[in-house]
Amino acid sequence: MADRLWLDVPYAEKGRAKALGARWDPSVKRWYAPRAGMAALAPWAPLPDIPDLLPGEDRTFGSGLFVDLVPSSCWFTNVRSCVDQRDWERLRRMITNRAGRRCEACGRGEDRDEQRWLEAHERWDYDQTARVQILKRLVCLCTDCHTATHMGLAQIQGKSSRATAHLCDVTGMTTSQARAHIDSAFSLWRTRSAIKWSLDLNILTKTGVTLAPPPEWHERSGLASQRLTEARARESDAPPSSASAMTPLSPPVPDPVMRQGTGGPTPKPRRSKWLSKVYDWLEDPRQPS
Ligand SMILES: [Zn+2]
């Protein structure tokens, strides 16, 4: 125990790390080397922790629970697509730890029996004049709050009633108020989806997080279309029990993908019929995420 060395193991590499002797500590949700001198685990030696407040981050921005739809022109290019997997693991750990391992919207922790997990969510500001999508804050949300946030996806998953009820429980909205709020969010989504946005990830650049250059604004919608085509091809080729088709997706499929960031033994993502519907739905410009 005294020689334990924490590791930064991306979810996709956990099987290999485990085979080489890494162990999982469920209490802190992190892999570790059980003793010093395990050279095979050196590739996952821990990187310095990311500070609890990102430079320029506004932790008051976008507080509470609300429907927060990502414009279709922004799909597939987000924080996770621009950072190294080990850096994503560092970010995810910081986000959940600084939140006290509680959802920042409803205050609840993880519950395996309830299939409720803690997930990272990006809060964006949209400068409509400059046409810039600006990362303002990273927030820790539970599965239920995250589902309500992505109400468009909740609808195609058949979860909108539960998501709306959760939205009402957490915010105190009446059902009619929630409906009006959702309609307003969808209207805003349609307006924003008509714009091609540049991406501003400046709050990450001074933390030692390595960023791949985000695509230019004029490339993003084309990239979204390309990634969608690739994902559909994988979906049709993959055997029914495979979870691999979920891996490359991030923005429109928040729950299972974000859970992959925990680096640990999380439940196998759901896929199949509803995922196929996601792909169909993503190509429909009338539908938000
Ligand atoms: Zn919550």
Description:
The protein is α+β, with helices and mostly antiparallel strands. It folds into 2 domains: 40 residues, no CATH class; 211 residues, no CATH class. The protein has 11 helices and 6 strands. The termini are far apart. The C terminus is likely disordered. The chain binds zinc ion. Zinc ion binds next to strand 5 and helix 4.
Give a quick account of the main beta sheet: strands, pairing sense, barrel closure.
3 strands, antiparallel
- Beta-strand residue percentage: 5-15%
Helix-strand sequence: EHEEHHEEHHHHEHHHH
Cα(first) to Cα(last) distance is: 45 Å
Helix fraction, binned, reads: 25-40%
Number of helices: 11
Task: Let me know the number of strands.
Answer: 6
Number of domains: 2
Note poorly predicted spans.
Answer: 238-272, 279-288
Q: Helix/strand-derived class?
A: alpha+beta
Global Rg: 19 Å
What are the distinct ligands in this entry?
Answer: zinc ion
The whole-number mean of residue pLDDT values reads 79
The coarse overall form would be: globular
Instruction: Walk across the major sheet and give the strand order.
Output: 1-3-2
Could you provide a short overview of the structure?
38% of the residues lie in helices and 11% in strands. It is α+β, with helices and mostly antiparallel strands and 289 residues long.
Break the fold down into its secondary structure elements and pairings.
Blueprint lengths: L4 E2 L7 H6 L3 E3 L4 E4 L45 H4 L2 H14 L19 E10 L4 E11 H7 L1 H6 L3 H12 L3 H19 L4 E3 L1 H4 L11 H21 L16 H7 L12 H10 L7
Parallel strand pairs: 5-6
Antiparallel strand pairs: 1-3, 2-3, 4-5
Helix pairs in contact: 4-6, 9-11
Zinc ion (ZN) binds next to β5 and α4.
